[in-house]
Automatic annotation (TrEMBL):
Keywords: Motor protein, Myosin, Repeat. This is EF-hand domain-containing protein. One of its GO terms (cellular component) is muscle myosin complex. Residues 7-42, 70-105 form the EF-hand domain. GO terms for molecular function: calcium ion binding. It comes from Adineta steineri. The keyword Repeat applies.
Length: 147
């Protein structure tokens, strides 16, 4: 799996085990979003469905090996949309705007805390390296949305 830190792999496996209600090494795809949120990630419902989440429980299951790649790779894929020059950089202002204005909005205070906790700062041109941001985000700790 692409560059997912070992502590996040361990965390993902622990989260997976918590949702493996029958101890069969499988989790109902209905819980993909809940598992990602348990890891401090904030995917939209549409993103969860794109990753295989089903609308009803009991329709499909996934194994831990199928769950692990969802985190890092999906973050990177989503942020590449904003990388206008395909150089690994995007506008920090644009990221902030997207996070507070998307369908499932984040409170601006949460966005500020995310950027602070990941030590994400823009350069002189207002850009930042989103690969470094995603890796820092996945290392945690991540702010709680209710703060």
């Amino acid at each position: 799996m692409a560059d997912l830190p070992s502590d996040k792999v361990d965390e993902a496996k622990q989260v997976f085990e918590c949702f493996d209600k029958k101890y069969e090494g499988k989790v109902d795809n209905f819980y993909i979003g809940d598992m990602l949120r348990s890891m401090g990630l904030y995917p939209t419902q549409a993103e969860c469905e794109k990753r295989g989440q089903t609308k009803k429980a009991g329709e499909k299951t996934l194994k831990v090996e199928e769950f692990l790649p969802i985190t890092y790779e999906d973050f990177m894929e989503g942020l590449k949309l904003f990388d206008k020059e395909s150089n690994g950089m995007m506008s920090l202002a644009e990221l902030t705007q997207v996070l507070v204005a998307m369908a499932e909005k984040l409170d601006p205070r949460i966005v500020e805390e995310i950027l602070r906790s990941t030590e994400t700062k823009d350069d002189a041109e207002g850009m930042f390296n989103y690969d470094i941001f995603v890796k820092a985000l996945l290392k945690g700790p991540f702010p709680n949305e209710s703060t």
